[in-house]
Design a protein that fits this description.
By secondary structure, the protein is an alpha/beta fold. β12 (about 220) and β13 (about 230) form a beta hairpin. α4 runs parallel beside α6 (about 240-250). It binds acetamide and zinc ion.
Amino acid sequence: MKFLQIFLLVFITSCQTKDNIQFNTIILPQPSSQTIINGQFTLSSKTQLVTTEDFQVSSSFLKNFIETGSPIRLLESDSDTKISFQIDNTIPSKEGYKLNISETEILISAQTDAGAFYAVQSLRQLLPHQLENQTYTEHKIHIQAQHIEDAPIFSYRGMHLDVGRHFFPVEFIKKYIDMMALLKMNTFHWHLTEDQGWRIEIKKYPKLQEVAAWRDETLIGHYNDMPHQFDGKKYGGFYTQEEVKEIVAYAEKRHITIIPEIEMPGHSQAAIAAYPHLGCTGENPGVAKLWGVFETIYCPKEETFAFLEDVLDEVLALFPSEYIHIGGDEAPKTQWKKCDSCQALILNEGLTDEHELQSYFITKMEKYLNSKGRQIIGWDEILEGGLAPNATVMSWRGTEGAVAAAKQGHNVIMTPTSHCYFDYYQSDNDQEPLAIGGFLPLEKVYSFNPIPEGLTLDEEKYVLGAQGNVWTEYMQDEKQVEYMAFPRAIAMSEVLWTTEEHKDYSDFVKRLEHFHKRLDALNVNYANHLYEIKGEIQSTKNGVQFVLKSESSSNPIFYTIDGSNPTSQSVNYEKPIVVSGDIQLKAAVFAKNGKQLSSVFEQQIKMHKAVGKQIELSVVPSEVYGGSGAEGLINGIQGSNKRYGDAEWLGFWGDDLVIKIDLGKETEVNSVKTRFYNAIGQWIYAPSKVEVTFLDSQKNSLSTHEAILTDGGKNLKNVEVKNIHLKVRYIHFNIKNYGTIPDGAQGAGHKAWLFVDEVFVE
Ligand code: ACM
Ligand code: ZN
């Protein structure tokens, strides 16, 4: 396939007609096979559309796209050039298709209308982007002749949108669905209820509209900014049932299933604010105005189940999807532990604890939904206390939930935070708009393999697919949702559609650069970090070198090492920069005409005494926060002040940590220092104790120091041991994890994360 791709790229740039028109052959997500042949098809008002009842959605989408996008009108009567739809039951996949373009015919073959719809999306991308915003004025379109055979690798290809934290208009939901359709995604997970707002009209419970849909005010800035400040503005809204029906019908016309999420038992503070008797205390908590996890959750009692069944009855009437998402995540058991009714239920049902009570809750709701012919999906917390018999698990806190569920024979959908949380930062540039935290660049999304490790081939079949999650605490408007969702959703579409052997990130970047024109025509406010510079330090036989690259390699990089700003007259980066002492590197990408295309990349490299030496950790870092490995702690580069998910920070979930550094020979050491991330909103805690021991080459301890944690700026804690003046071979850091997150804090009861940065030895 490498060969074919190279061939295609050459072809794209060299394929010129007599009229000097370039034919676009780029398709996202990359098809299974695409073979360019000689010739071209000319689409015009002399082209006949030949279709049948079987292809209503796909053929009317195509007709509408061409006729609203251009002056071309398709013929119904017989003609010499045709676009034809035909059933082909030899195509192995229900969502697969063949698209054969010759000089006289565009032939779309599929088993189903859905398959043909994906052929149409491919064909759409072969047409000029001007059709997307109805600015194509010519009466002919030339299309490169080719054969495409294509099918998805996963049956669940999703995007999620949280409309609880921020509310988005019907027109935007349709645009989001349109974008999913363009990318051949088939499931929209609509997160409709939250602590901060209930967003779906339920006629039997008018206070959900009057009370639960509105919060008094909204947090300004980040949750971690103390003290919290609020904007004083009432905020909210909801979708009427008529609007929901309209959106469901709109999605059906794009072969997209909408899975509604009605959260239970947690994330239900807004509903309890409307109907306080649904909680354990009977008190009105108010609709939440802060982000996070709240202790006010539904009390598992008759009134609550009756309420939820009534709500679900109305939801089921609106959504034909087989699956209904019932949430299940982040439900603190604090109130259940103190509630007489909850405790009596535990006793009567012979349950061992509140986790089994949650399982009882979810299983009861599952029975109800199963009795109506539906299946439930829940976040991976529904594993705790025992999985409901038929539930599908949406694995978000890593992949362990998915593995456990698949081993029990349950279907799973992958949304681990590490690769699927599009509310995380996508660049470590300080100018990025405020986000919740984390770091999930495009390439990491693209590298995602939805099949988790630890499953047998048989068990892998339970992995239905994956989705990008868009939680909107820090996305006030549609523009910001688009910025966070794109282009990462495009990478996700290729993760879910394209086979591994046809995936190639640098080729994806080239196709994406080209796709920008279509996104512009669609007025999508996508993020563009393709020219942003990334750096990597490397150890070599002779020392250390620094490598620079940008995702798009078509423009040169210029750099300085003295801290001055780079210009197109600075040193042209051609090979790795050899680092022999401390440097302050700055670099930027420039266009051929000297215009600066990227922001300035900055990297301080400190050649301290441990750089390039030996290091050993007592535990391996978390698979998802492994940074650049143990060596990254002594590579001379400090992690970002803001992004613990970068290549320099190492994350450990719940473990104590021993770091052992071997300087190779006894070396004069005067001070050591490092730092820890401390963002309790994200479950990250500085350690409870840090001890540093210095040893000689016989491993005799020379001295041990307890290092005091000091304030290192926002979300950072420093430790430093100074004035040592010893000849040292080995340095040991004994780092005690904070332990269990205390009650009342985000993630209470869970293990705390520990994040450690560069260890400087001087
Ligand atoms: C989640 O992110 N709470 C599912
Ligand atoms: Zn209770």
